[in-house]
Amino acid sequence: RHPAYSNYPLLCVSYGQAENFCAWLTKAYSAMPDAKYKNVNFDLPTKDQWMSAARGGQTYPVFPWGGYTMMDKAGKWRANFVPMDDGSAHREYFPRITPRGDTIIDRYYVCDPGDITGSLNDDADFTAPANAFAPNDYGLYNMAGNAEEMVKEKGISKGGSWRDPGYYLRIKTEENYPDSIPASTERGFRIRMTAN
Q: By the 8 A CB rule, do 53 and 45 touch?
């Protein structure tokens, strides 16, 4: 809540809170007498809509900035994430129950950021300011890294976070989060506006 963090991603919200915020914003915007658009709706993007925005108009990019590298020509990281090495990588297992009642164990490669966080050239202890890295070709910031983003399909997030290895920053990669962990210091959301 400190003003110093007003340009940082919003974290620690649940899917329901994100949906409620979108509904509130739709009503609040529509009630503005000088609103530019009269018929608007704010909501979470679907997976496909999120990936289209992340591609930034490029045909087949791996990352929102295009190309296959995590560093720019000056040797700076292109996003806020955890570089993965043999010493920090390990698997974590997350059980989840399907709508049919079956238990599935999801496996994820994660990094222990204890020795790495804060030591990168992104100057971030955890999250970084929203404009700390260059936007994609659509002008959208942080489509990869910093905070993974919930999408319309409940239980799925895209883009990876400050605590994820680079694999999760790829446009096509998605993460599943269980209902038992409704809010996280790694997960936030991005809204989509439709207007006519």
A: yes
